[in-house]
Amino acid sequence: MNRTDFAKVKRVVVKIGSSLLTKGGQGLDKVAIAAWVEQMAGLRQQSIDVILVSSGSVAEGMCRLGMKVRPKTLHELQAAASVGQMGLVRVFDDNFQRHRLHAAQVLLTHDDLSDRQRYLNARSTLLTLLKFGVVPVINENDAVATEEIRFGDNDTLAALVANLVEADLLIILTDQQGLFTGDPGLHPDAKLISEISVNDDRLDVMAGDSRSGLGRGGMCTKVRAARLASRSGAATVIAAGAVDNVIASVISGADLGTYLLPDIEPLVARKRWLAGQLQVKGQLVLDAGAVRMLQNEGKSLLAVGVKSASGRFERGELVSCVDESGLEIARGLINYGNVDAQLIAGKNSSEFENILGYFDDSELIHRDNLVII
Ligand SMILES: Nc1ncnc2c1ncn2[C@@H]1O[C@H](COP(=O)(O)OP(=O)(O)O)[C@@H](O)[C@H]1O
Ligand SMILES: N[C@@H](CCC(=O)OP(=O)(O)O)C(=O)O
User: Fold this and answer.
1) Which has more pLDDT, 275 or 64?
2) Where are the domains of the chain?
3) Which of 227-231, 346-350, 358-362 has the lowest mean pLDDT?
4) Which CATH number fits domain 278-372: 2.40.160.210, 1.10.760.10, 2.60.120.280, 2.30.130.10?
5) Count of Cβ atoms closer than 10 Å to residue 293 Cβ
6) What is the SS3 assignment for 122?
7) 3-271 with 278-372: one CATH topology?
8) Is 175 annotated as a binding residue?
9) Which of 55, 194, 302, 317 is the most buried (most CB within 10 A)?
10) Which residues of 81-103 are buried (b: 16+ CB within 10 A; e: fewer)?
């Protein structure tokens, strides 16, 4: 994907770091936040799904509670985060409302994404919010996250969210122009990198830690986030939040910040990620026609070509597709749970509404969510 292809993206995760949001710790930068929200509203007008991952709860809480340095104990951090999150939510809600958009607060912990059932719940909630045109505003649930279950930095959280919703692009806004050959604060002659593959080993030498005392990760976690995001095919751009119209400019393909290339076709990456990530929960037996459609024509799987469904699975879970002799043909994320899948097996999609009382998707498994074995 070239930068010019960003104009075609359908779903974007925008991550904004603490130091940007809080003017280096002096309290929420309402002018800058209004400008970012206006740009995100612009994306919504182009029907691009937007998910915001916002840091700043600890930094804003510190400011509100008059703390001069980041607290050392977990309980103080948790307390500061709960106070600061109120400010974040209020300012984002006010700004999105101004553009007649709804925002939704979603606070996640590591467990929510590592536990299969909770992962699927989080995924369904986010996809449903996007379907309603809402902008989810995500942060770590710092008030309850203990050291063992913390993401710790929101770069990682943003990348996992990009995986979760299968975003095309992750934009990480920070206090630097992008990734430099070294930390510009320590190496004044460091050069901005415009484009680099996530697989380039030099990244590990160039990216350093945070020194602001507000953010957590520095560039290390941003590079790691780009690598994580690439596993589901998402491209990553690290850019300066202070640049005018930064989000819109990135989407328009401007040579801005650092583009971390996933270096693999999005669809291939997504399918590889799919195949590696999930446990098989059930089995569909396909008739010969459906097998041909999947193997030779690259089509989606329709219920009409399914002879039977077994196992216990929910919408969005991974099932195995076998031919009538039991040979595995494909794996994919199914659009219906096992009870409904059994009812509509062998049926035309025009009959779904009558049989189920509702109609979600005409395909049982969309071809983008299918991996041929
Ligand atoms: N190679 C690098 N290029 C740019 N910044 C770097 C680099 N290595 C380390 N950094 C540091 O990373 C910081 C940005 O990360 P961080 O403080 O976590 O910000 P944020 O709050 O936006 O996540 C920069 O201010 C800089 O000090
Ligand atoms: N959940 C924390 C995130 C801290 C964090 O990762 O900050 P940053 O490195 O600025 O993205 C908060 O809101 O303060």
Assistant:
1) 64
2) 3-271, 278-372
3) 358-362
4) 2.30.130.10
5) 18
6) helix
7) no
8) yes
9) 55
10) bbbbbebbbebbbebbeebebeb
CATH architecture for segment(s) 3-271: 3-Layer(aba) Sandwich (3.40)
Task: Determine the distance separating the centroid of ligand 2 and the alpha carbon of 301, expressed in angstroms.
Answer: 42
Q: Is 371 helix (H, G, I), strand (E, B) or coil?
A: strand
Q: Ligand 1: which atom is nearest the Cα of residue 173?
A: 22
pLDDT surpasses 80 at 151: no
- Give the residue whose CA is nearest to atom 8 of ligand 2: 215
- Residue 26 pLDDT grade (very low, low, confident, very high; cuts 50, 70, 90): confident
Please identify, by atom number, the ligand 2 atom nearest to the C-alpha of residue 155. Answer: 11
* 111 in a labelled binding site: no
Q: How far apart are CA 214 and CA 211, in angstroms?
A: 8
> How much is the ipTM here?
0.97
Q: What percent of the chain has pLDDT over 70?
A: 95
Of residues 170 and 118, the one with the higher pLDDT is 170
Cβ atoms of residues 94 and 35 within 8 Å: no
- Identify the sign of the CA torsion 53, 55, 57, 60: negative
Q: What is the pTM of this model?
A: 0.83
Q: Is 73 annotated as a binding residue?
A: no
DSSP 365: B
pLDDT of res. 191: 97
Query: Residues lining ligand 2, CB < 6 A?
Result: 17-18, 55-59, 81, 139-140, 142, 153-154, 210, 215-217
Substitution site in 140, 160, 219 for ligand 2 pocket (most atoms within 8 Å of beta carbon): 140
Per-residue CA distances from 138 to 46, 92, 135 (Å): 22, 11, 9
The answer, yes or no, to whether residue 147 has pLDDT greater than 90, is no
Tell me whether residue 55 is annotated as binding: yes
d(CA 131, ligand 2 centre) in Å: 27
User: Could you say which ligand is closest to the alpha carbon of residue 207?
Assistant: 1
